[in-house]
Write a structure and sequence with these properties.
The protein is α+β, with helices and mostly antiparallel strands and about 120 residues long. It has 2 domains: about 1-50, Rieske [2Fe-2S] iron-sulphur domain (Rieske Iron-sulfur Protein, 3-layer Sandwich), CATH 2.102.10; about 55-100, no CATH class. The chain contains 2 helices and 6 strands, in the order βββββααβ. It has helices spanning about 70-75, 80-90, and strands spanning about 15, 25, 35, 55, 60-65, 95-100. The strands form 2 sheets. The chain has a 3-stranded antiparallel β-sheet, with no helix packed on it. A 3-stranded mixed β-sheet has the order 4-5-6, covered by helices on one side. The chain starts with 13 loop residues before the first strand and ends in a 14-residue tail after the last strand. Residues about 110-115 have low confidence and may be disordered.
């Protein structure tokens, strides 16, 4: 989520790398560049995005999220976010399965598996 207007637009941003090889996503609305590792904004030190640990193994994407209440207090309804991300990933054919891993290390019940 871009912190400028709390807009969910970074999935439409351009991903690039800086002179040191650090990956970033550029907000398509506000032209701010956010580092994918720590979320820092390279062209506005007052802006920052949340980042989460993620990994891909054999077509399975796993994302480690904080407790739902903590996540909801910052970005909104976590159940919507999980369903939206899952629907978009399956729609684009980018993953066979998405696992949302809670702080306890267990897979969240919102997980869906491709047929």
């Amino acid at each position: 989520m871009c912190p400028h207007k709390r807009a969910f637009v970074l999935d439409h941003g351009i991903v690039g790398d800086d002179a040191d090889g650090n990956l970033y996503v550029s907000c398509p609305l506000h032209k701010r560049n956010f580092g994918l590792k720590g979320g820092e904004c390279s062209n506005d030190p007052e802006m920052k995005i949340l980042t989460f640990d993620a990994k891909e193994e054999e077509g399975v994407i796993s994302v480690l999220l904080p407790e739902s209440d903590a996540l909801d207090s910052v970005i909104g309804t976590s159940k919507w976010m999980v369903r939206q991300a899952t629907a978009e990933a399956y729609g684009k054919g980018s993953a066979g399965m998405i696992e949302i891993i809670g702080p306890d290390g267990r897979v969240a019940p919102e997980v869906a598996q491709a047929d």
